[in-house]
Design a protein that fits this description.
118 residues; alpha+beta; 2 domains; three-stranded antiparallel sheet; 4 helices; 3 strands; 14% strand; YbaB/EbfC DNA-binding family protein
């Protein structure tokens, strides 16, 4: 009976190792994507990636004055400015307190959690 569990344990380990090696690769119209066995995005390769980033940055610059104009009336209201000042001050205080309580490695882990390449 004990040997059965050991054998099952070895099978589980082999399957885990094999699954860790699994990669799916898709290529469509010059765009290459690699995913792992858990469907996590590991890599994207596109032609002219620099142009994509530059176009994205241009779009951000283009929308900024439009967003500012859309919010102008609301931002001019003194009541909103008071709430915003309070909220920003309180958020900064809470973040400072959280950082003081955090373990040394925890802040690094939190900052890195957004990456799709983990």
């Amino acid at each position: 009976m004990h040997g059965d569990f050991e054998e099952l344990g070895r099978k589980v380990q082999r399957a885990q190792y094999a699954m860790a090696q699994v990669r799916g690769i898709g290529v469509v119209r010059g765009v290459s994507v690699i995913v792992d066995a858990e469907n996590r995005l590991l890599s994207i390769d596109v032609p002219n990636a620099t142009a994509i980033i530059e176009a994205y940055q241009a779009a951000l610059r283009d929308k900024e004055p439009k967003a500012a104009a859309a919010m102008r009336e609301l931002n001019a209201d003194a009541r909103l400015r008071s709430v915003r000042t309070f909220t920003e001050a309180n958020s900064a205080r809470l973040e400072a307190e959280r950082r003081l309580r955090a373990e040394p490695g925890e802040l690094y882990d939190t900052r890195q959690s957004w990456s799709v390449f983990e």
